[in-house]
Amino acid sequence: MAALTYDIAVIGAGPAGSMAALHAARLNRRVCLFDRNARVGVPVRCGEGIGFRSFIAHAGNRLEWTKNKISRSVMVSPSGIRVTIGNIDESYILDREKMDGDLVREAAHAGADLFLSTPVTEVRRTGDGSYECRSPDRTFCASIVIVADGVESRIARFLGWNTALSLSDVETCAFCRVTFPLIDQETCVFYVGSTVAPGGYAWIFPRGKGEANVGLGINGTKSSAGRAKECLLKFLDKELPGASVENLHCGGVPVARWVRPLVRDGALLVGDAARQVNNISGAGIHYSLFAGKLAGLTAAQAMGSNGSVDYRLLARYENEWKKTYGKQQDRSYALKEFVMKTDDAFLDRIAASLAKEPPERMNYPRVFTRTFSRHPLLLLKAARLFG
Ligand SMILES: Cc1cc2nc3c(=O)[nH]c(=O)nc-3n(C[C@H](O)[C@H](O)[C@H](O)COP(=O)(O)OP(=O)(O)OC[C@H]3O[C@@H](n4cnc5c(N)ncnc54)[C@H](O)[C@@H]3O)c2cc1C
How much distance in Å is there from the Cα of 350 to the middle of ligand 1? Predict the structure, then answer.
């Protein structure tokens, strides 16, 4: 079969890839979008939490993509001290199945050719500078390739990126959907401590109508085969006894520095594949939506009408990412390194002092300022890390 030819090939139809395909297609580029799965967005492998500002900025305030509104969060320390943060901007729990599905449909509607059940098995650069993407049945040619194949990111390796993660730069997660009528539907709850989730945290994110996404992540250095699942089952037994549990899965979250460079010749790396994830919370949806759109627009603008590529223009993708979120993500990496060196006794001390604050005055910046003002030695340590 003859190879199909496109301007831009996008590999992976998660939020990063779909946004890239959608925005490139809207600029009338010939785009193909591949996913190895027959349906995108299922099973949901995500807590589905997103902050209000990110939701407005990157999901266009599409309320039909939300399941539930959250108005406060609670942090539970290793010994059970509860700190309520009652003055947060609203956040949302998304419906990823709907959001991911809609984004793919919108990309197709904008003109992208969608190839589901199409795993890309190899990508290589040809003599004329274009890219050949192979799937088991067909070969596709494109002038630019956008790699959005998620945390495993095998495809990036064909193009010269080293996307292998060190153990300390990955959280191994176990997660599920539960139904439990007693879950407070307005509050996200986070649990920290070496017995609950060593080097990570456990979460309960309510989705409305008695449902919640529940999961935990363990740092790779403290994990072993089956440990995340074992910890999750123990956590469910203790915190939500008798809950009905569905869709228990395991997966990884990269908590690594974002990959540099993000652009190699005519190839752009986006989303989890590029490690564009907040290293403290593990949140990556907003980064993927932002980076995907930026990569799609940049790629489309770099394509000349005769099919030529202005490679210098492609560098804008990395520059804009760095300006908007790159530095923020670098700080989250430094903070993660710092948190990894703390122990349960330290987390309990911090929680005990924060628990004295009136919940309605507590927001996330205040958690940081209060922590540092009550523990001045921390400031010195942090200054060394961030300096
Ligand atoms: C347990 C867990 C909880 C999380 N909770 C949150 C949260 O609450 N909030 C938040 O903001 N973030 C959360 N995240 C992170 C968030 O899910 C990711 O950052 C986001 O999905 C990344 O989007 P993406 O498009 O880069 O990758 P993905 O969503 O992983 O999409 C990658 C796509 O590429 C496809 N693919 C892979 N390889 C190939 C191939 N060779 N050929 C074709 N297709 C391929 C896959 O099938 C997939 O559809 C969580 C992650 C996990 C694991």
Answer: 33
